[in-house]
Amino acid sequence: MTNIPVTTWSLEQTDPSDLLPADAPDGDVRIVRAEVPSPEFSRFLYASVGGDIQWVDRLGWTYARWREHLERPGVETWVAHDRGTPAGYVELGPHDDGVVEIEYFGLIPAFRGRRIGGHLLSYGTARAWDLAERWPGLPQTKRVWLHTCSRDGEHAMANYQRRGFRLFDTEVKEEAEVATPGPWPGAYPA
């Protein structure tokens, strides 16, 4: 197995006023919270969005592991729909002391390049800032952070920075080169 260098950038916002929202795209794009924890739906989103950019860390999760993750207080999945079809998602995960991580964010390949991503990231980040309003017992959000890497989409870093996220850490390490799994085997050419 071949190793390749992968750069991971961590970015943050430390105040709600840091958010620089994108304009909503033209057309019928709606963002809706998936309020019922559904391992099947979350795995579909994960595999469909990350299949061409080597998201593989959750592919081996069992149904029980997905359910356990999704049922944690404060975990939210917000889904962008283009004319009723799921186009992408943002997953929020609370940590201690008012820290919320944007654990996953992205669009299904067919919906990229249509200005949906900036809008979805803006909306998801705003929901990270007001997470405690929907989850009694969670502390008020003091910081929203995320990470992206050199395996992610070519416009990811620029989108995060345009939304007001600031770089706070960079790490480079060797990782195993993995096959691009696609949303199902053989969905994308090698």
UniProtKB/TrEMBL annotation:
Keywords from the UniProt entry: Transferase
PROSITE patterns reported for this sequence: GNAT
Domain N-acetyltransferase: start-end pairs: 29-190
Keyword presence, Membrane: no
CDD domains cross-referenced by the UniProt entry: NAT_SF
GO molecular function: acyltransferase activity, transferring groups other than amino-acyl groups
InterPro entries according to UniProt: Acyl_CoA_acyltransferase (IPR016181), GNAT_dom (IPR000182)
A Pfam family annotated for this UniProt entry: Acetyltransf_1
Top-level taxonomic group: Bacteria
The protein, known as: GNAT family N-acetyltransferase
Naturally occurring in which organism (per UniProt): Streptomyces lasalocidi (Streptomyces lasaliensis)
